[in-house]
Amino acid sequence: MGGARFIAGDWGTTHLRLFLCDGEGTALDQRNGPGAAESTGRFATVFASLTADWDSEHGPLPVTLCGMVGSSFGWVQAPYVPCPARSQQIAAACTTIEGRIYVLPGLSCQNRFGAPDVLRGEETQLLGVLGRLEPRQLVCLPGTHTKWAVVEEGEIRDFFTAPTGELFAVLREHSVLARPPQGGDAAIEAQAFNRGVASVVAQPDAQILHRLFECRSRTLSGDLPATAAAAYLSGLLIASDVHGARRALARAFVPGTVVLVGAPRLTQLYASACAALGLHTDQVDGATASLAGLTEIYHRLS
User: Fold this and answer.
1) Low-confidence residues of the chain, pLDDT below 50?
2) Contact 178/136 with Cβ under 8 angstroms?
3) 2.60.34.10, 2.60.40.10, 3.40.50.300, 3.30.420.310: which CATH number matches 164-285?
4) Lowest CB count within 10 Å: 17, 53, 117, 292, which one?
5) What is the predicted pLDDT for the residue at 269?
6) What 3-state DSSP class applies to 176?
7) What is the model's pLDDT at position 136?
């Protein structure tokens, strides 16, 4: 492990994680701070307050930042790089602040459904896993807006977005289908999730709109505990997401392995749905992938 060489930061909507790194991307120290939404109008002040002691000890270091820090409400609005895109194109499109802070761009494409699509932040995670991928690989990045990306020979070819997490949150918080559980049992919720997945597997061609009310009707009939309705809803949505992506990206599923990148608890749910649908998975922690991607950009810029 060497001395500090650069600062890497994942500045999302709600959270900021900064890492003091050596030349290989190993984190020597970490700081946490407010997300981009809370930092609007004071990004420079927030960043300076969190890194002042690092600057004092190591001098001004180069910085690579990804996430919503580069959005329309971020520190600076970074561009979108059109797909297909490689790491060198992403590095070249970074937006510079104060001569040493590099904000990564997002990616854009015309997706498989003929619609414009964008992502921001996930490009860094994709860069972080490129070295472990097959020549042609499907990568799923679960989250509020789940991304399904096709990577081929080190190039991010295209992607599309499924707002699975957002739909789950909206239905759980603002509908009668699946109210948030109050002191639910984890084992019962796990069983309910698996039942939701199994229901999709049993009738894979049924439209998700025709299945959602089950979350309500099964609880009213006593078939499902009310505290487990949200877990059942999660199983329906995630399994439907996986099934739909498999149909839309049939060629990319060869040889049948999906690389899942994100928060471990969420990637495990997706892994369970994939397994039920006959798909193998490889799970990668999203924070680890982000740091690896930020390190890749640091090397390219150096």
Assistant:
1) none
2) no
3) 3.30.420.310
4) 53
5) 98
6) coil
7) 87
